[in-house]
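the two lines:
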Amino acid sequence: GQQLNQSPQSMFIQEGEDVSMNCTSSSIFNTWLWYKQDPGEGPVLLIALYKAGELTSNGRLTAQFGITRKDSFLNISASIPSDVGIYFCAGLDYKLSFGAGTTVTVRA
Amino acid sequence: NAGVMQNPRHLVRRRGQEARLRCSPMKGHSHVYWYRQLPEEGLKFMVYLQKENIIDESGMPKERFSAEFPKEGPSILRIQQVVRGDSAAYFCASLEQETQYFGPGTRLLVL
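prediction for all of em together
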């Protein structure tokens, strides 16, 4: 699969702060997905993006599909302790190519 | 995990033994994807199967690894003569509406 560059690799934030992470690719994808993985569990889908330029929200989460179809970002507003985990971006071309993940740690 | 089942959740094997990992996709789905996740890394595609067919195995190591998805029963990922480097989490996924949903994974530890 293709290699996606995800940043930052990790972040420590205060409860209540906003979080932002992004992903870039050298290849075009028609679908971008954002997942969250808790320790010992499988990735859980957060947001799916299907159209270039699309901005989609899911509660405190907002994600955008870049106009070039080679990038995407995810924002988490007003973080809470349960936002702790690893967030992965993934591009889909019938199989998924994943970023390396962003580890989020929230300080209460 | 949207109905994707995997078992066992944890598997311990000694070097040289065989590991069999099972996956049942979402009900009514006939496509399965297998991914491997090494510690501190993202998931890497291994193989894509339909019932009784391997569609894409480009991510599968050439030796010791095999996968099947028979007409009846779960998909099986088989690792023969395991080595310590096979220790990882193995996930399968179902495809629905251009989105993949993952099972809880099997964590393989090779001693």
